[in-house]
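Report of the visiting student (M.T.), summer placement. My assignment was to run the structure pipeline on a short list of targets and document each run. The first record concerns Isoprenyl transferase.
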Amino acid sequence: MRNPLYSAYERRLVRQLNREAVPRHVGMIVDGNRRFAKARGRNADDGHRAGAANIAGFLEWCEDAGVEVVTLWLLSTDNLTRTPDELDHLLRIIEGLVADLASAGRWQLHPAGALELLPVQTAGALRRAEEETAAVDGLVVNVAVGYGGRQEISDAVRSLLRARAEEGATLAEVATELTAEDIGDHLYTKGQPDPDLVIRTSGEQRLSGFLLWQSAHSEYYFCEAYWPEFRRVDFLRALRSYADRHRRFGG
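After the run finished, the structure tokens were exported:
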């Protein structure tokens, strides 16, 4: 049973939410699964499963608040160097999570990462989820698996060069004409608004390369709670903090 004081506080935060200052795009660094498990004497798999169980609820909170796009960082390119046993279990959990989110039929899923670096089974699960939800008119959810900010920019530049080469452009012509917008058009999140707010759980206060290109003007919010313990009130506090800031966009 929920604490009545917690419920009352949550309702108050909802009432105070400024609907005119809700971020369109929220980036979420879901950090702390392993530390959550370790603090309870459990193994890493238990932590990852607890983290996966918190995803759908978080997406519902985003829907309720009026957020349009969410990017979930579930697995970095650095994480691909974990022990084979832990990585295999984590990938199975991610595959199950993505399948469950797709089957809900309420969110439009997009893979955001270097799929070629992932096992065929995992990449296939991400592509199927994208195909199955392509027609869904709902919250857009970028599932960042095998994601790294530098990797994304490298992939974008390679994609841009290939596209221009197919058009017959020379390297000198591309170098002369290249703009930041050209690179943006080849990012994993092309066609989407840049993140207005980036949240990281677990108390770590760094981005670790998350949405490195897109977050130039993002606001950041760092939460002490491990991801499996991240509650709706934590999210509402992040939205309140965002609404209270004066965004300068570099000015």
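The mean pLDDT is 94. The first helix runs from residue 4 to 16. I thank the supervising group for their guidance throughout the placement.
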